[in-house]
Each structure stands twice: as C-alpha cells, then as structure tokens.
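Reminder: ligand-aware prediction takes two inputs, not one.
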Amino acid sequence: MPDFVPVAKTSELSDPSSMLIEVDDRLLVLIHAAGHFYALDDICTHDGGPLSDGPIDDKGTSIACPRHGAKFDVKTGSALTMPATKATIAHEVKVEDDQILVRLTKET
Ligand code: FES
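Here is what comes back for the chain with FE2/S2 (inorganic) cluster:
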C-alpha cells in the first residue's frame, strides 16, 4: 500500500476551494469543503474534464466538471449527475498539524 505523502499546508486552501496537485505522476484535485479535505483523481469520467477547474457546490458535498457539468461526490468520487455515470477515484486524506497528506488508492 502506498504511503501518505505531504501535498499542501491547510492554509493554502480556503474553504471552499480546490487545487491541482500531483502525487507520483498522478494529477489529483485536492478539495477543502465544509471543513473537510478530500482528494479525487482530476479526471471527469465522462470525457476527461479537469475537475480542479470546476465549482464546489454550496453545501460542500460535490464538485462539478467544468466541461459538461457532471457532478461528483467529493468524499467518494461517485458520479451524481449526467453525463458522467462512472465514479472517479477517491484517495485517502489526513491532516497532521497544518500539513495535508494524501495516500493514493490502488487502482483495481
Ligand atoms: S468531460 Fe466532464 S461532464 Fe463531460
């Protein structure tokens, strides 16, 4: 299983906001919403849109693809609305002091 790697300081991400990060050559969107941090593959499963360029909803529960508007659950990566039907991959996140760490989910 991969290790947790430091990706950003908590002060770098206001709530709500997101940023593009790279972990082991993989692009992820790191999300701060409703007091929690999440990390998803930065890939919309509809047609590869960059989720890091999309808006987070007012409740802090979903992020939308900027290309055709599909929404994904920030926690699980599940596709919530069309045109996406498949989940994007969610990764484990933890915070230690002011450091945000991410552990990649192994693809199946
Ligand atoms: S590429 Fe994301 S909704 Fe189409």
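The longest strand covers residues 26-33. Residues 5-103 form a domain with the Rieske Iron-sulfur Protein fold (CATH 2.102.10.10). We will return to this case in the review session.
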